[in-house]
Amino acid sequence: MNPYDHKTIEKKWQEKWEADGVYQTAENSDKPKQFVLDMFPYPSGDGLHVGHPRGYMATDVYSRMKRMQGFNVLHPMGWDAFGLPAENYAIKNKIHPRVAVEENIARFKKQLGLMGVDYDWSREINTTDPAFYKWTQWIFLQMYHKGLAYESWEPINWCPGCQTGLANEDVESDGTCERCGSKVEKKPMRQWVLKITEYADRMLLDLDKLPKWPEGVKEAQRNWIGKSEGAEIDFLMPGQPEHPIKIFTTRPDTIFGATFIAVSAGLAKEWFSVGWKAPQEIQDYVEKTLAEEAVKDFKEKEKTGIYAGFDAVNPASQQPVPVWITNYVMKDVGTGAIMGVPAHDERDFEFANKYNLSIKQVIVPGNKMKAVVVVPTLENDTLFKKELQKAGIGFALATSTISKREQIRVELTKENLQEFIDLVQKHITENNWVEIIGSENIVVKKDAVYKDFLNQADEWFKKFQEWEPLIQGQKNLWDMFSKNTFLNELVCYRESGNLVNSGKFDGMTSEEAQKAIVESVGGKMVSKYKLKDWVFSRQRYWGEPIPIIHCEKCGVVPVPEADLPVTLPEVESYAPTGTGESPLANISEWVNVPCPKCNEMAKRETNTMPQWAGSSWYYLRYIDPKNNAALVDKDKEKNWMDVDVYVGGDHATRHLIYARFWHKFLYDNGIVSTEEPFPRLEFLGFILAHDGQKMSKSKGNVISPDEVIAQFGADAFRLYQMFIGPFEQTAMWNANGMVGTLRFVEKVWRIAGKVADEASDLEVQKTLNKTIKKVSEDIEGFKFNTAVSAFMILANTMESATSVSKDDFKKFLQILAPFAPHSTEELWSGLHGEKSIHTSAWPRSDEKLITEDTVTIGIQVNGKVRAEIEIAHDATEAEVKEKVMNIPEVMKWIEGKEVKKFIFIPKKIISIVA
RNA sequence: GCCGGAGUGGUGGAAUGGUAUACACGUGCGACUCAAAAUCGCAUGCCGUAAGGCUUAAGGGUUCAAGUCCCUUCUCCGGCACCA
């Protein structure tokens, strides 16, 4: 047996697999299909680092197992090559983006090749290939025809670094550009927008149909879509019934507490343009505020506002309410105006306090009167706590005041108060006392008298008077409990509850009141979304041209489908112009075309599509990559969709929202047959550098897979990628870890040297069959790390065995093959001959060998493990008890005690209570 | 602030409510060797000479039995964030 020489072996097999077409997907097959998909990469100029391939390794392992299990596997790869980074890279290196992309793809492909991945390269796609983006443009046209693509002149996010407009999804939550980190500004400009909001509700609802998606990703999408249900209500201004102020609120039940109207600066500006002659002071304020808003800044700003000089009328209370223009209401949220309810909204509360606006309480907590009381733990504390629990009084360890260990915190409600008092009276001694540290019912402020609370306070006061003799010297209690203390508290109550000060609605619950009030003030219930329509124009060169022609006579004219694709022209200068126009605008021979309708000279749309366009549907093209007549053949689509498992990370709210949107649109138009593209999503964790930071060229902590593979070999690299930790969890790259998996591969190599034709040790047979079962399940569930550990256990068993049969070893090689395709293929070819291990049939585990005749289980005495016993796996309780009671170790612990309970859980444990 | 995820040896981590610390790294000792590397064997949670005791962020609860379920609190990571 030659020593393990990974370099020779890897090269040899990679070439042979390629030549034999081992991984090509059959076009017509009787086998069940399996579509395994990676999020395709952006071929950046930096090449891959060791953090990238983890997902590719996972799909590689998964698809290899599926192929061996008899599935017709589609495991393709492609390139998401349009967009800013490629273009910026090209500008920086003074080459054409197409050339840069070609170079980068070649490099990525070579790197992937070194890892021994099983992609079917005959189906490779590239979003920048005109034959591909013809269909991206085609989908845009379908959307245009359905009214889902429209022109807009709204101010949008503008990145001064990238010199282009951006979608909301491209802006980080700190207001910087996702790509270059520049501060994003607001800039008004003409752009194409996709009406993603029309699909918001369906995208939200259908998340519930995706049980195999990680909860976190679904939650991120729910947040992003941001549905809120509430009411739109008009506040009229005396004498101007034709100009009501429309507000949006999720809490119409608090309307009687609305003491002012707060209007966004953006809305005020609109009023100027429809004829409001506001004083200069107000106009200045609006301009100043808008300028501040234009620079997205999420640092907490102080709330400011200015009185508009007129009042509206609260439609519920008929009271006049002043209209304020403020900086804390956003134009693009809700209707851009709100009713200010300071008693029940913290932001309104803050604003009202600053400008001395009146505060009117209209909600009181329902029947959940709650006080928090601190009780130092009493002498027989277990007893006291048990009794508290019996009485249904919740308690917790107190964390503040004195020391943690000495006190507990008790939550009291109206219902359990009497019981609590009784209990304390029973247990209290002169060293113990009770302190009230707060109550959730403290809601009151100055002029807003919370009368219901006062009633309760009287009640409380009376109750606690009864304690007086018991708590003498504890003045805390009286201080905390005086009415004055409560009345000076300045808090607002945000929860729902019962209505007060609300006319005929008094006494209703918040829930009841909502509908009734909206109806009585002539409002209507509506749903609002945080999700905004998708800004789809980029003022850059390197993207799909938007297939639209602007004609002076005919207006906006879509390019006829027969003329697709609209290809990017070859140009000298593709750098952004910075004027808000695409560089394409300067190429007159491309821009000027006859109008398809009237044939007079017209101009092409010069904006291009964002990077996310191609990736929103690319997976469909793998199914039918060369079809020039349709996006995808209907029969092939039916055969291959859904994607059985989709693997990637980092795109919870961008790509995965856009792709779901496009897929649903295609479904509605009969192009695809499923409502969701990816029923199972496996999200992967990053691999961080050794220093715990993200790998990046600028930090100088990048580890290249090429070097690691050169040193340790692709198989050890692949095994380590899978072994490093749970797949979905962030992991840190540790070069030492590679040593372990390399040793393992070498160990397998050594075992190959000792296989014989005799039967294996029983131990080996058993472990092998358990491992086959475990590895099959683990790969299916993406638990690769425990699969690798199972391999190691099996290898250790085989190495120390006296005999390992050729057949058993071959089975081991087969289940290991998805992880270590090169070395297993090499060893397999020596034992088995010509046919590739990767097309061999996945071994089955022999259940008979997995079931053990005897099991060793632990024996607990009073909850502690004191001994263990080996018994038949089907032993009865009587047999077991007989044996157990005679074990010296057990007898020692139950000596002189009565055995109260003997619990026998077959194959698990014996538990004795004495 | 809201939502989601997590907290286990020196390190990465394992464990359908049933013998916590599998597997690997690291470390120590030993074998082989003139020597070293590689490899192999043994040991390795903490306290204790031992018997034994303690231990899954902290505290409490349910249970014969809790890393796992429930309550309270803390910390870290991620998403959203003046969203009305």
How many strands in all? Answer: 35
The radius of gyration computed from the alpha-carbon positions, rounded to a whole number of angstroms, is: 36 Å
CA-based shape? flat
Stretches with pLDDT under 50, minimum 5 residues = 367-372, 377-381, 397-407, 428-457, 465-490
Helix-strand makeup class: alpha+beta
- Reading side by side through the largest sheet, how are the strands ordered? 2-1-28-29
Helix content: 25-40%
* Secondary structure tally, helices: 31
Instruction: Provide the β-strand percentage band.
Output: 15-25%
Task: Please report the distance between the alpha carbons of the first and last residues.
Answer: 61 Å
Q: For the report, how would you describe the main beta sheet?
A: 4 strands, parallel
Mean pLDDT: 83
Summarize the structure.
With 914 residues, the protein is α+β, with helices and mostly antiparallel strands. The protein contains 31 helices and 35 strands.
Description of the molecule:
This protein is α+β, with helices and mostly antiparallel strands. Helix 21 links the parallel strand 28 (about 645-650) and strand 29. The two termini are about 60 Å apart. The strands form 11 sheets. The chain has a 4-stranded parallel sheet, with helices on one face. It has a 4-stranded mixed sheet with strand order 13-14-12-15. The chain has a 4-stranded antiparallel sheet with strand order 18-19-17-20. It contains 31 helices and 35 strands. It binds one RNA strand of 84 nucleotides through helix 7, strand 11, strand 15, helix 10 and strand 18.
